[in-house]
Structures are given as C-alpha cells and as structure tokens.
C-alpha cells in the first residue's frame, strides 16, 4: 500500500482509493437495498439490546424490510399449517414387515433347499415377533388368525433406547 503523505511514492497509483471508488460505483449501480447491510444492522441492533438488558418495544427495524423480501410473512391461520403439513405425508406408503426369526445359511445349503425343506430360525415358539417399518424395528406383537387370515396384534411399542439394544441381534 502507498502512503499519501510520503512524497516518494506519489508516482504509484493509490490502490485504496481505487478500491473505494469501485465499491462506491457498485453500490450506486445496484439500486436495491443490500440484504447483507440490513442483516448486519439487525445484528448490531440485537447486540446493543442485549448489552442494555432492558426490554425493548417492538419497533420496525430497517432490517425487517429485507426480511420481508426474503421470507414470506406468516398467515394469520398459521396454526393450522402443522395439520396441513401432516396431512401431506399421510398418503406416503411405508413397508411393514413382520419377522418370525432369522438364520444364516451357506450358499450350498441354499441350493439344497427344495419343496418341504425346513429352515430353523433363531426365534422361539411363543416369542413375540418383530414389526419393522422400512427395515426399522418399531414394535413387537403376536400372531393372530381371523377368518382364515393371519394378522399380528401389537403387544409392545419399542422405545428408541430399546431399538439401539435390539440392533445387536
């Protein structure tokens, strides 16, 4: 950088002045309110308010205009928007799986399977079956038969901590 007070460097152009001129020109050309300047002003106002530790009245800030340009204002019936958002996901299909048990077999044993073969599972008779939603354990239940159709009666909802313990199975 050059020192304007030093006569030896007067031949070199002053880069600080060029930079300031370019920034001023850019600001004059934009014609719009600078959202960054508005955000910085809002932050500065918030810091001053926290330093004073006095409750402030809600007065319109210049930064609110920038916020209104970026974010849509909330409607008066925004309390119902939560229900509306929930209704949007109600029709999303999920895969429910009921698991009797698991086992590991070799490829040789898999190729030897035929009609009537019995595969031993690690689940015990009478033990509750795992109910999985999209592959995640969410509940356990027992098998029921209603009108010649199988179903499952939920006997226990799995808590998140229990889910972590069951992952080791």
From TrEMBL:
Residues 9-20 have a biased composition (Acidic residues). Keywords: Bacterial flagellum, Cell membrane, Cell projection, Chemotaxis, Cilium, Flagellar rotation, Flagellum, Membrane. Residues 37-53 have a biased composition (Low complexity). Residues 1-83 are annotated as: Disordered. Its main location: membrane. GO terms for biological process: bacterial-type flagellum-dependent cell motility; chemotaxis. The keyword Membrane applies. Signal peptide: none annotated. It is found in: Cell membrane; Bacterial flagellum basal body. GO terms for molecular function: cytoskeletal motor activity. InterPro entries: FliN, FliN-like_C, FliN/MopA/SpaO, FliN_N, FliN_T3SS_HrcQb, SpoA-like_sf. SUPFAM superfamilies: Surface presentation of antigens (SPOA). FliN is one of three proteins (FliG, FliN, FliM) that form the rotor-mounted switch complex (C ring), located at the base of the basal body. This complex interacts with the CheY and CheZ chemotaxis proteins, in addition to contacting components of the motor that determine the direction of flagellar rotation. Belongs to the FliN/MopA/SpaO family. This is Flagellar motor switch protein FliN. It comes from Aidingimonas halophila.
């Amino acid at each position: 950088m050059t020192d304007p007070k030093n006569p030896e460097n007067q031949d070199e152009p002053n880069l600080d002045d060029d930079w300031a001129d370019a920034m001023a020109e850019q600001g004059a050309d934009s014609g719009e309110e600078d959202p960054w300047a508005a955000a910085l002003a809002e932050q500065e106002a918030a810091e001053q308010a926290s330093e004073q530790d006095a409750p402030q009245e809600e007065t319109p800030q210049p930064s609110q205009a920038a916020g209104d340009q970026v974010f849509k204002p909330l409607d008066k019936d925004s309390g119902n928007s939560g229900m509306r958002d929930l209704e949007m996901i109600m029709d999303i299909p999920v895969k429910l799986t009921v698991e009797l048990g698991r086992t590991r077999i070799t490829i040789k044993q898999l190729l030897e399977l035929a009609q009537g073969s019995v595969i031993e599972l690690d689940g015990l008779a009478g033990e509750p079956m795992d109910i999985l939603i999209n592959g995640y354990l969410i509940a356990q239940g027992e098998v029921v038969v209603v009108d010649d159709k199988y179903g499952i009666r939920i006997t226990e909802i799995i808590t998140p901590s229990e889910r972590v313990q069951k992952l080791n199975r």
